[in-house]
Amino acid sequence: MSKFFIAAATLLAGVSVLPAASATLEDLRWNSRVLVLFAPAADDPVLVRQIEALRGAAAGLGERDLVVFAAAGSRILAVQGSPPSGETSASLAARLRPKDKAEVSAVLIGKDGGIKWRAAAPFPIGAVFDTIDAMPMRRSEMR
Predict the structure, then answer these.
(1) Which CATH fold topology does 22-138 show?
(2) Which residue has the higher pLDDT, 60 or 137?
(3) Strands 66-72, 33-39: pairing kind
(4) What is the C-alpha to C-alpha distance for residues 45 and 91, in angstroms, rounded to an integer?
(5) Which of 63, 120, 128, 143 has the highest Cβ tally under 10 A?
(6) Using CA atoms, how far apart are residues 63 and 32, in angstroms rounded to an integer?
(7) pLDDT tens digit string along 20-64?
């Protein structure tokens, strides 16, 4: 019987607990970086190609603790991780969308909650990775 408890305790010690779904961007602060894509509609061809490119780089996104979602029209689409359930496309656009209103654009938010990068799409995934990898918090994570 004691062997069972030792085996169970050993197994449970290796289990990682996944964070619960967040309600707002603020709930992601200090745990995740966030990349928000903005587009007029979910079927926008530029958005679709950008999402495909991001999904192709899923390992790099995960390595950098990056949650990615799109505010497309009135919908929020998950790309990597779970988007905050308490946010709306309109509220995100009002707070974060660049003033130039490019048809498809992106905003990168650091773990500290600050905006770190903005770009019109399509953009190379390497630009996002380079921006994140240059951040002091990321450099300390890589040590």
Answers:
(1) Glutaredoxin (3.40.30)
(2) 60
(3) parallel
(4) 23
(5) 128
(6) 11
(7) 568 899 999 999 999 999 999 999 999 999 999 999 999 999 999
Q: Which amino acid, one-letter code, is at 43?
A: D
Helix (H, G, I), strand (E, B) or coil at 43: coil
DSSP letters of 52-84? HHHHHTHHHHHHTTEEEEEEETTEEEEEES---
pLDDT score, position 20: 52
Please name which of 76, 57, 78, 56 lies closest in space to residue 67, comparing C-alpha atoms: 78
Burial class for 42, CB neighbours closer than 10 Å (0-12, 13-18, 19+): middle
Ordered by start, the domain boundaries in the chain are: 22-138
The overall pTM is greater than 0.85: no
Tokens found for residue 56: 């192709």
